[in-house]
Amino acid sequence: MQVALAIASVGLAAFCMILARRLRRLNDLETGLGGAIAVMAAEVDRLEKAICAARDEATAAGEALAAEITRARTERAAWELRQRIGQAAGIEAPARRAPRLRKRMEQADA
Question: Is 101 helix (H, G, I), strand (E, B) or coil?
Answer without folding.
Answer: coil
